[in-house]
Aldo/keto reductase
Amino acid sequence: MDYVRLGTSGLNVSRLSLGTMTYGDPAWRDWVLPEEPSRPFLARALEAGITFFDTADVYSIGRSEEIVGRALKDMTRRDQVVIATKVHGKMGDGPNDKGLSRAHIMSAVQASLKRLDTDYIDLYQIHRFDPHTPILETMTALHDLVRQGMVRYIGASSMAAYQFAKMQHAADLHGLTRFVSMQNHYNLVYREEEREMIPLCTEDGVGVIPWSPLARGFLAGNRPRGEAQTTRARSDAFGEAMYRTEGDYAVQERVAEVAARLDVSPAQVATAWILAKPGVTAPIIGASKMPHLEDALAALDLKLSAEDMAYLEEPYQPHPVLGF
Ligand SMILES: NC(=O)c1ccc[n+]([C@@H]2O[C@H](COP(=O)([O-])OP(=O)(O)OC[C@H]3O[C@@H](n4cnc5c(N)ncnc54)[C@H](OP(=O)(O)O)[C@@H]3O)[C@@H](O)[C@H]2O)c1
């Protein structure tokens, strides 16, 4: 496993991050695995050298954090892993149970620490932009968490590049902690981030850690031409709404074609593509079956030629903003 710095921060992370949205409570989403069948994925990831784990308070409404916290505590030493979680989503019915106000951030971090059963969060990410809270209020609250030792680094997730730039600017102006990472929606069928966000991050020394590098399984072939082949493909309304244009299917078919020629799986090709894209620190992969994780690991050794990279990208058609 290779380890790389998260942007220009001093924090080293594995070249792959294991996303843990898939592990939690099947009552939350049909395709989510409960605790016992989830643990082997965390064990195999650790064995393979993955040290970077991504969760969020909203995944299975806290259950994902509990499972991740318990497994990592049982399987490794706390200082050997980087635990990333998120705040912003709705965690209750009260008026302050969501968003990026100081009120919610301070309560949410305590709840995440408790569920993860840890004294600190390595990377605390804002899950989305909050247009209803002053940026300075959010940045000051996040800075206070770092000062108090509850959080070591802060990151952000999907938002407009101008919003991210404004938040970083507020941190600079007021001597507050800057975000070290951007967790954005980026894969072979959603490349709008190449316009603004990725160049901004690259120039600014911010690590890019894309979510859904396989377009929620679309690029691995779990829904060819709308024919849902897995539980997730059948029940993942979010994915179904995002990936289904002719351009998307054309890219999906090229991924399958290149994979057949190289005698590897489509998932390996799509993962190797994102690993090779400039600015990408570590894609956050999802695995609901063990071969998914093995394919992601194998992709680390798959080097695509410049011709294959261009061939995969050629049919792409621009999309409206998706996934904010
Ligand atoms: N910040 C955000 O807003 C945000 C949003 C989404 C996700 N995330 C993070 O990103 C992580 C990954 O997201 P994701 O699960 O959507 O990632 P993904 O890698 O795009 O999709 C994972 C899905 O692809 C399929 N798959 C993976 N490898 C495969 C293989 N080798 N062969 C066939 N199918 C394969 C599986 O689908 P089946 O289960 O159908 O077999 C699996 O559930 C999440 O766990 C979460 O941590 C963050």
User: Anything to note?
Assistant: The chain has a mean pLDDT of 97. The CA atoms of residues 68 and 116 lie 7 Å apart.
